[in-house]
TrEMBL record:
This is UPF0145 protein SAMN04488006_1155. Belongs to the UPF0145 family. It comes from Lutibacter maritimus. HAMAP family: UPF0145 (MF_00338). InterPro entries: UPF0145_dom_sf, UPF0145_YbjQ-like. Pfam families: YbjQ_1.
Amino acid sequence: MILSTTNTIETQPVKNYLGIVTGETIIGANIFKDFFAGIRDIVGGRSGSYEKVLREAKDTALKEMQEQAERLGANAVIGIDLDYETVGPNGGMLMVTASGTAVKI
């Protein structure tokens, strides 16, 4: 399946628009990861633990969106938009949503 943030796939005309598809995930941040990430942020380093959680959340949301598109008979999703939000008490959870248009090319 082709996944693209663009509204078209070059040299691949859209034959059918099958509808909007979405994928969502919410991941909680571990208190120990938060503590060590804070220390790294103070010394100016990158927070590997947050980067890993962010990557996992994005991958999960995209996978859910792709599975929904496959159920509709799509072979591509175009116009993908990724949104990142913190939710929960003190912003302790990360929500990632992926949305796009399922198409047959």
